[in-house]
Amino acid sequence: MDAAGRLRLDTVARYLQDVAIDDVDETGWGAPEHVWVVRWYRIEVLEPFLTDREVSVATWCSASASHAAGRRTSLQGDRGGRIETDSVWIHLDPAGRPARLEGFGVYTSSTEGRRASTRLSLPDPPAGAARTRWQLRSADVDLMGHVNNAVYWAAVDERLVTLEIDPAQPYRVVLEFRRPIDRNDDVELVDIRADGTAGVGFVVAGEARAVSRLQPLSRS
User: Fold this and answer.
1) What would the pLDDT profile of 122-162 be if each residue is shown by its tens digit?
2) Which of 124, 158, 181, 218 is 20 to 30 A from 205 in CA distance terms?
3) Which class for 216: exposed (0-12), middle (13-18), buried (19 or more C-beta within 10 A)?
4) Does the pTM exceed 0.90?
């Protein structure tokens, strides 16, 4: 939690990773035979976690494709917090190459025939937008040698107020991963404002490695 008791986005991302790992380990689709890398996330904070002290996490496979699968995850707080997430993960073999999902039947019933899409839709950050350097740490790098996806969420979380998103109100964030960022990369964060939305781009040598989009939501 942050100083106000709000559940941070990078913490949410770590919950999502942990429950996904627990799930694939239980079904036999975990490491080392199977490796999963996230393609995109959508996090919808429907009721912000502000006073909650316990979180219940439930996950299931929401879609599948030849080399990828979708995962939905629901977070419920003990005092009314509620977050719904969707994501798509690409399936790799132990050597890090895309691998077909053969015998994925354990997850078939929950997909109900839905197809997972790895297509990315967010535009590149504008060339003239304000940029700040993003300092990486050795602790940000995971077993695959890349910056862990939860670390990107820490950068997004820090810019919620700057991008005029009130974290105490409902909002949606989409984060797309294009290419990995490594420990020694010189990374710039680019604030994005367009079409009534805001976001953050992660740029290395002029190339957008990841892009996010944030927008407020109305309470239903």
Assistant:
1) 999 988 888 999 999 999 998 888 999 999 999 999 988 88
2) 158
3) middle
4) yes
